[in-house]
Recover the amino acids of this structure.
C-alpha cells in the first residue's frame, strides 16, 4: 500500500468548502482525500484509525505569520514555526517579509520555498512592497510573483507615502497579487508602547493613539477603491477601523480584513501587570473595541482570523517598556477562538472553520482550506470540548511570548495531517 494512506472512522466532519457538517469517515489514499462521508469500499492494507469523539476539518490557513527565517532564527525558524502551526491545527501559513534579508528578491523567496519542503506546514511567502521595507523603492512584483510570492506587504511597518502605496496597488492589481497592509501612522505612534488611554496614563508610559490605525485603514480603503487592487487589512484592533471596513464593504470596495484572537479576547487592562508578553502592535485596546471586533468577526465584516504570530526571545521580552512588540499565537489560536467565539455562542464551529481555513485560502487564492475529493489531505482532528491550560514552555515555537499563558482554553488539537502524513499528535 502507498504511504500516507489512512481511513479515519467515527468522525464529525466540518468542511465549509462543501457545506459539510455531519458524521462520517475520511479515506486518505496516497496523501489525497479519496472519500469523505459514508463508508465505502476499502482498498486492502489501508490502516484504520478510530476518530470517535473527534471533529475533522481542513487544516487551518494562517495568512499572517512571522517565521523569522532567514536571519532572525534565534526567534523562530521555518521548521519550529511550522511545527507550532501543526500543533495548532494549521497546515498552511503565509510568512511575512520582515526578515534578514527582507523578502524582497526572488532569491529569498526561493530560499524559503526550498527550506519549507521539509517543514510541517505549507509555507507561502509574502514579499515586501518596498525594497528593504524602507518605503522608498517598490519591489519587482512580477519577479516576486514568478518566484512564488503569494502576496505583498511591508508588515511591521506602513508604506508611509500614499502615492507609492497607490502605485504598488495599481501594479499588484494587474498581477492579481493581494496587498496586505499594516495600518499605522508612525508619526502619531511616536514612542508609544501600548494603547493610548486610561491604562497607559495610569502606568505613565507613552501611548499609541487609535487614530494611527484608523487613519491609515481609511487611506488604504480609499486607495483600494481608486485602484481596484485586492487590499487586505492586517490585524484590525479598533472600533474605528471596523466602522471604515463596514462602510467599505457596503460600497463593494475590494477590501478584506483579519483580526487575531487577542483583539477579541483581551483588553488593555491586562497591561496593568506590566508584562511585555501582553504587548503587540497594534496594541490591546478597550472593551468597546473588543466588542466591535467580536461583532465584526460574527457578521463577516472581518473576514478571517489570523495569528500575527510574532516570536521573540525571552531576553528581548524581559523589559516591559523596552521589549519589541509581538506575541506568539500559532499554538493557541484555535482553542482561543473556540473559547472566545464558539463557547459563548458567537460562532458555530462550522463558521469558525470558515474563518480560519476556508476563507483565508479563498481570499489569498491558496490551495488549502478544503477536503474535496482529490485535494491534498491537509486536515486536523480536534476534541471540541477538551479543556487545557496554556503552558508556553511546552510550545514547539521558540517564542514563549504569549498573553494567554496560564489561561484555561477549550478545544484541543489532537492530530494534524499534511498531505496525509501525520505532522502532529497530541501526547
Ligand atoms: Zn503588522
Amino acid at each position: 500500500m502507498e504511504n500516507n494512506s489512512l481511513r479515519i472512522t467515527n468522525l464529525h466532519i466540518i468542511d465549509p468548502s462543501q457545506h459539510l457538517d455531519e458524521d462520517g469517515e475520511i479515506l486518505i489514499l496516497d496523501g489525497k482525500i479519496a472519500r469523505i462521508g459514508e463508508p465505502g469500499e476499502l482498498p486492502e492494507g489501508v490502516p484504520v484509525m478510530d476518530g470517535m469523539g473527534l471533529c475533522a476539518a481542513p487544516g487551518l490557513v494562517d495568512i499572517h505569520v512571522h517565521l523569522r527565517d532567514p536571519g532572525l532564527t534565534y526567534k523562530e525558524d521555518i521548521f519550529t514555526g511550522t511545527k507550532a502551526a501543526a500543533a495548532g491545527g494549521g497546515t498552511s501559513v503565509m510568512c511575512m517579509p520582515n526578515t534578514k534579508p527582507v523578502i524582497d528578491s526572488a532569491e529569498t523567496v526561493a530560499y524559503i520555498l526550498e527550506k519549507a519542503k521539509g517543514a510541517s506546514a505549507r509555507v507561502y511567502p509574502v514579499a515586501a512592497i518596498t525594497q528593504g521595507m524602507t518605503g522608498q523603492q517598490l519591489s519587482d512584483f512580477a519577479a516576486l510573483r514568478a518566484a512564488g510570492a503569494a502576496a505583498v506587504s511591508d508588515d511591521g511597518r506602513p508604506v508611509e507615502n500614499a502615492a507609492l502605496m497607490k502605485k504598488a496597488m495599481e501594479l499588484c492589481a494587474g498581477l492579481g497579487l493581494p496587498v496586505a497592509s499594516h495600518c499605522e501612522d508612525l508619526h502619531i505612534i511616536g514612542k508609544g508602547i501600548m494603547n493610548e488611554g486610561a491604562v497607559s496614563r495610569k502606568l505613565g508610559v507613552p501611548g499609541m493613539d487609535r487614530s494611527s490605525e484608523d487613519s491609515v485603514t481609511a487611506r488604504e480603503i480609499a486607495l483600494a477603491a481608486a485602484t481596484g487592487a485586492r487590499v487586505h487589512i492586517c490585524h484590525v484592533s479598533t472600533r474605528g477601523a471596523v466602522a471604515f471596513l463596514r462602510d467599505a464593504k457596503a460600497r463593494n470596495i475590494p477590501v478584506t480584513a483579519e483580526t487575531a484572537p487577542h483583539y477579541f479576547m483581551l483588553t488593555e487592562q491586562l497591561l496593568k501587570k506590566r508584562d511585555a508578553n501582553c504587548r503587540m502592535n497594534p496594541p490591546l485596546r478597550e472593551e468597546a473595541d473588543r466588542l466591535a471586533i467580536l461583532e465584526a468577526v460574527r457578521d463577516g465584516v472581518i473576514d478571517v482570523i489570523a495569528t500575527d504570530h510574532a516570536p521573540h526571545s525571552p531576553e528581548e521580552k524581559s523589559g516591559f517598556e523596552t521589549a519589541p512588540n509581538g506575541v506568539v499565537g500559532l499554538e493557541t489560536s484555535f482553542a482561543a477562538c473556540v473559547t472566545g467565539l464558539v463557547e459563548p455562542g458567537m460562532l458555530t464551529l462550522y463558521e469558525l472553520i470558515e474563518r480560519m481555513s476556508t476563507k483565508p485560502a479563498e481570499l489569498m487564492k491558496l490551495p488549502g482550506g478544503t477536503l474535496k475529493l482529490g485535494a491534498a489531505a491537509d486536515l486536523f482532528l480536534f476534541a471540541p470540548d477538551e479543556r487545557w491550560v496554556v503552558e508556553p514552555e511546552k510550545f514547539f515555537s521558540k517564542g514563549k511570548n504569549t498573553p494567554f499563558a496560564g489561561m484555561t482554553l477549550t478545544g484541543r488539537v489532537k492530530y494534524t495531517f499534511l498531505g496525509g502524513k501525520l505532522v502532529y499528535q497530541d501526547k
Remarks:
- The CA atoms of residues 23 and 79 lie 34 Å apart.
- DSSP finds twelve helices and 18 strands in the chain.
